[in-house]
Amino acid sequence: MSVYRLSRRFRRRGINAKSLLIIGGGVRSEQLIKKISRKNELGYRILGYLDSTPSYSHRLLAGLPWLGNFEDLREIIDREVVDEVAIALPIKSHYAQIKLAIDQLEEQGVVVHLLSDFFPHQLARVEPQDFQGMPLLSLHSTPAVCWRTEVKRIVDVLGALALLTLSAPLFVVIAILIRLDSRGPIFFTQERIGYNKRRFRMIKFRTMVTDAEARLEALEHLNEKQGPIFKIRQDPRITPLGRILRKFSLDELPQLLNVLLGDMSLVGPRPLSVRDGSRLEECWQKRRFSVSPGMTCLWQISGRSNLSFEEWVALDLKYIDSWSLQLDWWILLKTIPAVLTARGAV
Predict the structure, then answer these.
(1) 159 and 127 share a domain?
(2) Is 96 exposed, middle or buried (0-12, 13-18, 19+ CB in 10 A)?
(3) DSSP 3-state assignment of 194?
(4) Could you give the number of structural domains in the chain?
(5) Could you tell me the pTM of the whole model?
(6) pLDDT class for 216, splitting at 50, 70, 90?
(7) 164 pLDDT tier (thresholds 50, 70, 90)
(8) pLDDT tens column, 295-307
(9) Domain residues for 19?
């Protein structure tokens, strides 16, 4: 059985479903909803719809709730997990609303489907589709789901299993050393922002004192980085063993479990903490959330903490725009010398 057929079977059962938001409350939206509802194998979970027209708002549309007006789109995208958005509005009377929605959605890497004509865009690639006899234009400003993305996931699983097996003795040694070095748990877990702003618990070997999170506010004025991230070279919260683990990225080995769980990939933008992610001020920066976060990335092999936050984000977006399986292999190979030489580590 092919990966594609297996994926369709899972989605028919509601596993790995994609959340879809509809913009427009008219007849075309209702037709689209009904067609999607009859095709469980497509794997969509429709959240509801947006429309500011009085006759189409504040009511159920094919059994789905009205979520707000057009101007509520940005708030909903920020608040909810939204994988894709379908726009079903008349062009002549709603050009401004459609254009604004496309700008907001492609800026954050959300896949857009248009039941209408082509509209100008800066980042997204256009893919015309025929959905059950209805013409669609899909705008992708991120790598489109295809056999290459399926291969990437297979490589993630096999690679994580192999690395966990090989590093098992090292896990034991590090765990014993952490116990001897300082009081507290062996592992540190923290809520991070993942694919399309999904939250997950990232696992690391503990490298700081147990009250590190509580002491962060008192150290904010020492931050050496511009932007939402916090970095200081002589962080007093890091334990003696923690400095060694961080220098060679050994503290990140438990994230292989996050890769197995599907929260992360071997290669992708580093996952931001909720604190840092919530402080992103520019919408274009949030497009880094449109792909799965990874254990290593272009930032990791290009200087790590020596880079500014702006350079970090620029490298993340460069990765998204030029992604390929070959690029992932290249980054993985470059990660080895970058880790061994501890270039840019803090």
Answers:
(1) no
(2) exposed
(3) coil
(4) 2
(5) 0.79
(6) confident
(7) very high
(8) 999 988 887 767 8
(9) 3-140
